[in-house]
Amino acid sequence: MGEDAKSLNFIEHIIEEDLENGYGKNELRFRFPPEPNGYLHIGHASSICLNFGLGLRYNAPVNLRFDDTNPAKEEKEYVEAIKKDVEWLGFKWDTERYASDYFQQLYDWAKQLIKEGKAYVDSQTSEEMAEQKGTPTEPGKESPHRNRTVEENLRLFEGMKNGEFEEGKHVLRAKIDMTSSNMLMRDPIMYRVLHKPHHRTNTDWCIYPMYDWTHGESDYIEQVSHSLCTLEFLPHRELYNWFLDQLVATDKLRPKQREFARRNLSHTVVSKRKLLQLVESGVVNGWDDPRMPTISGLRRRGYTPESIRNFSETIGIAKRENVVDVSLLEFHVREHLNKIAPRVMAVLNPLKVVITNYDEGKEEWLDAENNPEDESAGNRKVPFSREIFIEKEDFREEANRKFFRLKLGGEVRLKNGYIIKAESCTKDTDGNITEVQCTYDPKSKSGSGTEESLRKVKGTLHWVSVQHAIEAEVRVYDRLFTDATPDGHKDKDFMEFVNKDSFQKVTGYLEPSLKDVKVGDRFQFQRLGYFNVDSDSSEGNLVFNRTVTLRDTWAKLEQKTKQ
RNA sequence: UGACCCAUGGUGUAAUUGGCAACACAGCUGGUUUUGGUCCAGUCGUUCUAGGUUCGAGUCCUAGUGGGUCAACCA
After folding, report:
1. Measured from the CB, is A484 under 7 Å from any atom of strand B?
2. Active site residue A511
3. pLDDT at position A5
4. A139 touches strand B (CB under 7 A)
5. Which of A191, A284, A410, A485 sits most deeply, having the most CB atoms within 10 A of its CB?
6. Taking the alpha carbons of A480, A485, A488, A489 in that order, is the dihedral positive or negative?
7. Is A472 exposed, middle or buried (CB count within 10 Å of its CB: 0-12, 13-18, 19+)?
8. What's the Cα-to-Cα distance from A503 to each of A41, A183, A368, A547, rounded to whole Å?
9. Residue–nucleotide distance: A553 CA to B29 C1' (Å)
């Protein structure tokens, strides 16, 4: 297919090079390593698509590995949510792993390092150690405990493991180089004492390994060939390699860490901490609020896995700072939904139209195409009657020729129905238009083939029969932030840019074919946008979310003339 | 006053590894259309700067400029 014609990203170049230099194709293996301390977001989606995409491309296994070395922050609830998200995106992992599966092996290796004089127990406070650590421009100083005997180190480390010491009393450190220009090489901590139950190992352990000691070794145990992470781990690579140097057997594959830039999305924030802040401050209603850039939020909003995968593919992967415009994400969801979403008619801001020359009590069921992009989608019937709703914005008493919609004395096509002409309108005491009286041309019925039905009128409106309409709650969402880079301002907090109009609840009037929709069903409300059925929906109480609007060149035109 | 990473249209990514700067989005102009949607066509660049190597540099070298990362018992 066109797959091979596609240009390679820098990670793929590295892999191709490794393949040329002796890696066997069956040696390739990847992993996606989330920490189960929060929900996955669109940035993770890029990493998921990268790792699992590589697996697909090279027919290599990809493990799902939970990086669960900190029991203070990690929970089972997150494990389940993460698995659901990865599956929903459409990927299958080879095996489900946990860093905690390797606690014993890691512990044994740590003892080995102690015996080889490459690790020691330090018994200072974290403040003391921080002081000795130096700064990026000054070297650090060695700990007074650095040269404890192997026996003492072993004894203390075992004591740590057996719960003989309280938290903070001792740590195990790698003995590397306190003068290194890389702060991470200044005798990094490998283990700390933590008297906390772990979501998998419960109270088996009183010591927990740190990230740097765990990650590379887990890659090694799983024989991951390419361990891909974000740019901030670049300085960790030296340490990653140092730890591997102490253990790797020559007949086994040695994992390689490579770093890529995390993807940022405009008009939102992509950081667990900030997303948590949005949740806890009540700005949004939870991690799966349809305005959240979490996978669960996007799913609830009506995004499709395909659209997110295509988005990830399009933005690619590189090493420079970036802010991807959210309009690219919106493009991909429109592109996909345009192909698959059935068209229906719904009015969100109703204005009653009475067709004065249409018989009272009469109704007709008109033919309507379900999807002009997909002939196999078939047709349905929509009821027409004397009184219909149209959108308030679709009528003006008078307007210039650029306004293609209904105006007094003007004609417009009712989608799938007749051509109508506005004759008059009535207003309330405040001057608001409350009703429009129209006449219709009985010979102009859509699809009837008559000369009148073929007449070209500039505007076509969606509508819904008043007596047949069903009501639904419609949640109209917009971007969560008013600024393209809410967290990119040094002097301002990102919370200042929250869009107060990002959510609006309205009552919609829908054509009756929508009576039996199911949670998750996606539709195009014609001329308005794409909507899906929210999980809050229940029998007789429909709730829809607006996924995204249609492209709206009219709105742009209006915007321009206002300025 | 250190080490390391990065720099290509408004945005994101490419460029057969030194050989005509390409693709997508956004914007703008038109055309088609019973969705102001879709679709189609056109349009928008001194590859951060200055030197150098070379027949030829986005790509290699040197210097500079700008941005980022690094001092958690977090990952």
Report:
1. no
2. no
3. 57
4. no
5. A191
6. negative
7. buried
8. 20, 46, 31, 12
9. 14
